From TrEMBL:
GO biological process terms held by the UniProt record: proteolysis
Keyword Signal: yes
Keyword Hydrolase belongs to the record: yes
Molecular function GO terms recorded: serine-type carboxypeptidase activity
Source organism of the structure: Acetobacter orleanensis
Coiled-coil region: none
Key words, A-Z: Carboxypeptidase, Glycoprotein, Hydrolase, Protease, Signal
Signal peptide boundaries: 1-35
InterPro entries: AB_hydrolase_fold, Peptidase_S10, Ser_caboxypep_ser_AS
Protein name, as recorded: Peptidase S10
Pfam family for this entry, one: Peptidase_S10
Length: 521
């Protein structure tokens, strides 16, 4: 998830939804205890001990050690790979040269590879306020966190082990935490909001961090890719533009996993288009739970759901609201498509709000916004205000990524600090400035259109889970269908699963195979 996800402080409804999304429930539980594997991963390491920081930082920034370098040999898909891992920080500075942040990253580079041909992929999660441990330990890193088979919500018993679906055979990887998340630490907390916590400021910080890493490691000429999850979709578009404008670096490709592409497309409380784009995910989840979504028919079923949502459903919402028998027929039809109780559909006037408790709570089970097929026992089956209803992903099993990463960093990467790893920062989220340059709200679709036109070889890879209600797959399809230039360079991929589709081993493996093909020259 996970990512975290989109919390818009300007719109309370979006704020509730984002807090419930990966990508982001304001009600956060304590992180589950990380359970170490019974045997360590098959990794050979020769650690260089971390030392005290040599730059005279103060406060929390002073608690971060110098870089730690370890050397590894692991086997992925039957092929042995020798690589180097570096966990550390890069220093961002203001125009006067004063440090403004220590940006934490973990880089994995294949030993002996030709840097001119070997791609580098730069990863970040979303939120805003989410650290990169989700993608790192969930999807692409050499080590993965796996949840118990048959009980995907059991974060307390999640285990780390070699990731058979790591992207490392195909690309070097640099995982970067946003300022205020993970171990990326602003040097002056009083000015961090203004300096980093906004759409444009954030993009500039990431672009400079990427330039610094590439320059320091002699990788300015390597093929470069951006990988973002959830709000990381918006972030990836903004960072690609900032890299070109401020750092003179063009990207070869962008990989987006369960991306938010525009805030307006997620605001189901105020946009009938957003409601329509969410409906196919409701329908996919219903079909899956009825065992009617077969691999050989899924594409056709999802296509039919998409056209119903953008056709009869959207036109009914846009027209004069039906009354009497017409209203009952419409609500019955929506209930049939979504699998939700008709009385709930009627109360919501045909626009079920994904974050609402009465939408997520059914038969004593509480479903997560991030995967509409995954649920826990509802702690409030009698009903409760939405803000008091915990999300099973954000407040539950998803928290396991934080404690797991702290253990992994100390034991495998030899990176140790007294600072807690900030997996999901509500402080950063609440402070986020969604404005653009002179705009009340930044919009990324026009930027994406410009990027595709200005860079005629830029390719886009978008991955979505069928059951994701936070960033539904239909929104990516709708955006792609309305791109006038470069539509043929946008690949859409859907998988069984939700926002964090990689928590399902089969979908993680399928994602890795598709990414491998995308990265191939």
């Amino acid at each position: 998830m996970i990512k975290p996800f989109l919390l818009c402080k300007h719109t309370r409804r979006l704020q509730n939804r984002a807090a419930l999304a990966f990508a982001t429930a304001l009600c956060l539980s304590a992180a589950p205890v990380y359970a170490a594997p019974s045997t360590p991963p098959t990794t050979t390491t020769h650690p260089e001990a971390p030392k005290a920081a040599t730059t005279p930082f103060t406060g929390a920034a002073a608690l971060l050690p110098d870089d730690a370098v370890t050397h590894h040999t692991d086997t992925f898909s039957g092929h042995k790979l020798t690589y180097t891992a570096r966990a550390g920080t890069l220093v961002l500075r203001d125009d006067a040269g004063k440090p403004t942040a220590r940006m934490f990253y973990v880089a994995y580079t294949q030993d002996g590879a030709d840097p001119a041909k070997r791609p580098v992929s730069y990863f970040f999660n979303g939120g805003p306020g989410g650290a990169t441990a989700y993608l790192h330990l969930g999807a692409a890193g050499p080590t993965a966190l796996t949840f118990p088979a048959g009980n995907p919500t059991d974060g307390a018993n999640a285990r780390l082990g070699i990731n058979p679906d790591s992207w490392l055979p195909d690309t070097d990887m640099v995982f970067i935490d946003a300022p205020g998340t993970g171990w990326s630490t602003p040097t002056d907390p009083k000015t961090a909001d203004k300096t980093f916590y906004g759409v444009k400021q954030d993009a500039r910080a990431f672009a400079k961090t990427i330039q610094l890493w590439a320059d320091t490691n002699g990788r300015l000429t390597s093929p470069r890719y951006l990988v973002g999850e959830s709000y990381g979709g918006i972030r990836a578009i903004e960072v690609a533009e900032s890299l070109a404008r401020q750092q003179n670096l063009m990207v070869n490709g962008i990989i987006m996993i369960s991306p938010a592409l525009d805030m307006g497309l997620l605001d189901t409380g105020n946009s009938i288009l957003a409601s329509a784009l969410t409906l196919p995910s409701f329908e996919a989840a219903k079909l899956a739970m009825q065992h009617k979504l077969a691999p050989e028919t899924a594409a056709h079923q999802l296509d039919e759901a998409y056209h119903y949502a953008l056709g009869p459903y959207l036109s009914t919402l846009a027209n004069t609201p039906p009354t009497g028998d017409a209203a009952r027929d419409f609500y019955e039809e929506v209930a049939t498509h979504t699998g939700l109780p008709q009385d709930v559909i009627t109360k919501e006037r045909g626009q079920p709000q994904p974050m609402a408790h009465d939408v997520r709570s059914r038969d004593g089970r509480l479903y997560t916004l991030y995967d509409a097929t995954v649920s826990i026992a509802d702690p409030f089956p009698e009903g409760v205000d939405n803000g008091d209803s915990p999300d099973p992903t954000l407040s539950g099993f998803g928290r396991a990524y934080g404690s797991a990463f702290e253990s992994y960093a100390a034991k495998t990467l030899n990176y140790r600090t007294d600072l807690s790893y900030e997996l999901l920062s509500m402080k950063v989220n609440a402070a986020w400035d969604f404005r653009g340059d002179g705009e009340p709200m930044a919009h990324q679709i026009p930027i994406l259109r410009r990027l595709l036109a200005l860079n005629p070889t830029l390719r886009i890879f978008i991955a979505n889970g069928y059951y994701d209600l936070a960033c539904p797959f239909a929104s990516a399809r709708w955006v792609a269908e309305h791109i006038p230039v470069g539509r043929n360079r946008i690949g859409l991929h859907t998988y069984p699963g939700g926002h964090m589709l990689y928590t399902r081993p089969d979908s993680r493996a399928a994602l890795a195979r598709d990414v491998k093909a995308f990265l191939a020259p």
